[in-house]
Design goal:
Blueprint (H helix, E strand, L loop, with lengths): L5 H9 L7 H16 L6 H7 L3 H6 L6 H14 L3 H9 L3 H6 L7 H14 L3 H9 L3 H6 L7 H14 L3 H9 L3 H6 L7 H14 L3 H16 L14
């Protein structure tokens, strides 16, 4: 995609507003979503945020078409890779609507980008607390199951790794039933990144004594049913 001037980006952001015609709004949203992926031409994600994109993007996270939700979640997922943007998205009240998009009513692509955005936002310590307060843990745990796509499972596991860094969340994550599906995700049919996220999440959950017992029980159950090879892929349970 050819480089665009900052003024062009600001023009796109203006078309995200409520007063824009729906067709213009959708076109501008799709363009910003694409630019947030290949943002090297615009000094990346900083320029898009500097043009004022975050607040109108958050506003578009509410009820709408699947296409709008997909492009909006994708743009925020990409923008949240930047540390400054992580704080700005949270300040714009972006966390609660992203959590809402984890719902089983959302399409898989929307769930994947919402979970990815939350994973990126959770790199910020303040956001870890905000995500838990917004109720992100139960739906993220639900997305670990076999009914989710591989990308959704991976992003949900990645978000839980970050959330499990907080002691209080270790209890909440375990209580939500995360340990069995995380152990399941250690299996050889899953990608190396998926297994690593699952192992890291379990390793952090194991900082809690009660969770250590639960993890040991679940791993024993898998071992006794012929699934002991899962442990070979982690190296964290010796």
């Amino acid at each position: 995609m050819p480089p665009l001037a900052r003024q062009d980006v600001r023009n796109l952001v203006r078309k995200l507003g409520a007063h824009a015609r729906p067709a213009q709004q959708q076109q501008a949203l799709a363009m910003i979503a694409r630019l947030s992926v290949c943002g090297e031409d615009l000094n990346s994600l900083v320029a898009i945020a500097a043009a004022g994109a975050i607040s109108p993007l958050v506003q578009l996270l509410g009820p709408g078409s699947a296409g709008v939700q997909q492009d909006t979640a994708a743009a925020l997922n990409n923008l949240a890779q930047n540390a400054d943007n992580q704080g700005k998205i949270a300040a714009a009240s972006g966390i609660p609507p992203l959590v809402q998009l984890l719902s089983h009513d959302s399409q898989a692509d929307v769930q994947a980008n919402a979970a990815g955005a939350l994973m990126n936002l959770a790199r910020n310590a303040d956001n870890v607390v905000a995500l838990a307060a917004a109720g992100a843990i139960p739906p993220l745990v639900q997305l670990l199951g076999s009914g989710s796509s591989a990308e959704v499972q991976q992003n949900a596991a990645g978000a839980l790794v970050k959330l499990a860094g907080l002691a209080a969340n270790q209890i909440t994550i375990a209580a939500a039933g995360a340990i069995p599906p995380l152990v399941q995700l250690l299996g050889p049919v899953f990608t190396a990144r998926m297994r690593q996220y699952a192992a890291n999440a379990l390793m952090r959950l194991a900082l809690n004594a009660d969770n250590q017992v639960t993890i040991a029980d679940v791993i024993y159950m898998h071992t006794s049913t012929g699934a002991g090879h899962y442990m070979i892929y982690t190296g964290h349970y010796r």
